[in-house]
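Quarterly update, task 2.4: succinic acid-bound model.
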Amino acid sequence: MINLKDPTLFRTENYINGKWVGGSGRHIEVLNPANGTLLAKTVDGNADDACDAVEAAATAFKTWSKVPAKERATYLRRWCELILENADDLGMLMTAEQGKPLAEAIGEVNYGAGFIEFYAEECKRVMGDIIPTVANDRRLQVYKQPVGVVGCITPWNFPNAMITRKAAPAMAAGCTVVIKPDAGTPLSALALCELAERAGIPAGVINVVVGSDAQAIGEVLTQHKKISKFTFTGSTAVGKILMAQCASTVKKVSLELGGNAPFIVFDDADIEEAVTHCVSTKFRNCGQTCVCTNRIFVHEAVAAEFTAKLQHSIAALKVADGFEEGAEIGPLINTQALEKMDALMADALDKGAKVLLGGARHKLGQSFFQPTLLNNISDSMRLANEEIFGPIAAVQTFTTEGEVVEKANATEYGLAAYFFTRDIGRVMRVSEDLEYGIVCSNSGVFSTEVAPFGGWKQSGIGSEGGKEGIADFYETKFHSLGGV
Ligand code: SIN
């Protein structure tokens, strides 16, 4: 049981058209990844529930899209305030269902609320245009109008912020949303609906359908004629399927997909800083974010120093149940994730990697894996090419700037990249040459609601956050006015 200050935030039914809906009687068991205990039995929604939610959202769109932006902003602000007031409980729900340490979970709740605050402000500043006319009897105007119903599929690694990052700009723009959260982490999504309801957000504007049949619900959200835009955060493999499905009705599509982030340490870098940020970007959420450091490239002249300091810092990380005081590394999401770590390790060892720290399942059991450091990494290893999505840090060395930039770019992914150097010329060159949507120099910290987050290449389409993050929720209309 989760000991919430406000137990009424614990919801287990779908939220459709402003009502808590029980569904067919089938259930999903939500388990705590740290110990396997049963947290909740939620409703197991299906394609019919998703269709009901789309109909509700389509009806609500007719009125919500006409509510003035300033008034929509007031609803969103109230929602944001309620989320912040209940941040401790929302963090508890998240740690219980997702595993991340409580402080990190509460951090995510605050990050998620930031998107609502930002878009409540931003929607008042989305402007059309008046274009200088081409004939005196005509006037040329451009309107920005909300796109319609938005289908959203959100991941388990950020059960709160990936919802608000999509829903807040959509709702602020005048759209209505149908959200399918991951079936493993639905409690955070449902609690957000409870608070949206308390904020007075009208029925049908936000709908959540929880279901284990991701394919059937996904087909509704990508193919239903009343959905105008689809947005997804998850793997590149699934994103490609969903994007293809959206083609049948030519939906607008935004995708936040996988990454293979390089972390480059040049020989003039501040090594202490580089180590600190390498640990935070590699081990955030137990390595389970799309922007986690995946490939560490260190100049050969500083490789020994950097690796020794990195080993020291990783060894000091506290691995524990996310509810334990001081926990820094929680469990992986499930046993499949653990099995993937085993397989990546076996492949790397087979091809000559050297284990400096960890390398195996953790004695805490369940889905805990030891924070791991490897070197002697070669290009043929799976962990040099695939998204690791776990607590394995793998160090390679390089000699020249040109060589490392080429290696960093030699991937189909292009989400986030990090590099450390004190040379301002190199900062400019490398930041321009890295083929990534997010480039971070001399820091590993960048996530914020005020700036665009999005991938190049097979890491995605579009951006979330910043002014870019609301633009896609509008259609552009050209009004040519004659007879003036
Ligand atoms: C992600 O990994 O998809 C989100 C990370 C972030 O927003 O910082």
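Highlight for this quarter: The domain at 7-257+459-480 is CATH 3.40.605.10 (Aldehyde Dehydrogenase; Chain A, domain 1).
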